[in-house]
Amino acid sequence: MILLYYTCNTCDNNDVFMNSTFDDHNIQEITAIEADHLTKVYRDNIRAVDEISFSVKQGEIFGLLGPNGAGKTTTIKMIITLTKANSGTLHVLGVDVFKSPETVREMLGYVPQSISVDTDLTAYENLLIFSKLSYVNKMERNERIRDALEYMDLSSRANDLVKRYSGGMMRRLEIAQALVNRPKDFAFRRTKYWS
Ligand SMILES: Nc1ncnc2c1ncn2[C@@H]1O[C@H](COP(=O)(O)OP(=O)(O)O)[C@@H](O)[C@H]1O
Ligand SMILES: [Mg+2]
């Protein structure tokens, strides 16, 4: 499942979803993401997400669209376990995100909007840190890092400092980072590199 989300200034708040299925062969019975009356209220009673319900099948490309302030980032933050909802439920591959955030984190890959890799480290070092943060088993770390670098065609630059990378290579490294824990779900934000 790939989840894309980006600002759509011509949409209104009722128009936040767009989806299409791209891989019929892999669709399984468990829903990839299931949100039910999900609500997030920040301090000062800012209702960022108001009883939103949606479901994303496995094998589906799902776009979360809406104008600035519609609640897209807050919704993604709840899915990737960075913030909790005030009410409603949220499941990723059948796992309750609020009750078992660690399990969900192990299953997710996420590429954020702005560059998140540390440019003072090498690609290998970035992936090593990330694999530790995402609970990759010590015995499997090196193999997974090697596979992710190979998949993104960065093996030959694994030991270069990231500050010497081009913008596109940094983006590829971020995808490698999101793949290093072999996520079942893979979410990424659209940026100028993807447009
Ligand atoms: N950490 C926060 N604390 C308080 N209000 C927030 C916070 N993050 C976002 N908001 C508010 O929540 C609303 C939704 O924001 P956000 O989820 O970033 O929307 P979008 O990503 O669709 O532009 C906005 O009114 C925003 O100001
Ligand atoms: Mg946003």
Description:
The chain is of the alpha/beta class and 195 residues long. It folds into 2 domains: 1-99, Rossmann fold (3-Layer(aba) Sandwich); 114-181, no CATH class. It contains 5 helices and 9 strands. The strands form 2 sheets. Strands 2-5-1-9-8 form a 5-stranded mixed β-sheet. A 4-stranded antiparallel β-sheet has the order 4-3-6-7, with helices on one face. The protein starts with a strand and ends in a 6-residue tail after the last strand. The chain binds adenosine-5'-diphosphate and magnesium ion. Residues 72-73 line the site of magnesium ion.
Concise summary:
This protein is α/β, with parallel strands linked by helices and 195 residues long. The protein has helices spanning 72-79, 101-107, 123-133, 141-151, 167-179, and strands at 2-7, 17-21, 33-42, 46-56, 60-66, 87-92, 95-96, 108-111, 185-189.
Strand order of the largest sheet: 2-5-1-9-8
Strand content: 25-35%
What structural class do you assign from the helix and strand content?
A: alpha/beta
Please mark out the parts with pLDDT under 50 across 5 or more consecutive residues, or reply none: 13-27, 190-195
Average pLDDT number: 83
* H-E order: EEEEEHEEHEHHHE
CATH fold naming of the largest domain: Rossmann fold
User: For the record, what CATH class of the largest domain applies?
Assistant: Alpha Beta
Distance between the termini: 19 Å
The outline comes out as globular
Q: What's the number of extended β-strand segments?
A: 9
Radius of gyration: 17 Å
Amount of helix: 25-40%
**Can you tell me the number of structural domains?**
2
Q: Tell me which ligands are bound.
A: adenosine-5'-diphosphate, magnesium ion
CATH superfamily of the largest domain: P-loop containing nucleotide triphosphate hydrolases
CATH architecture of the largest domain: 3-Layer(aba) Sandwich
Q: Classify the oligomer.
A: single chain
What is the helix tally? 5
| Main beta-sheet strand count, sense and barrel state | 5 strands, mixed
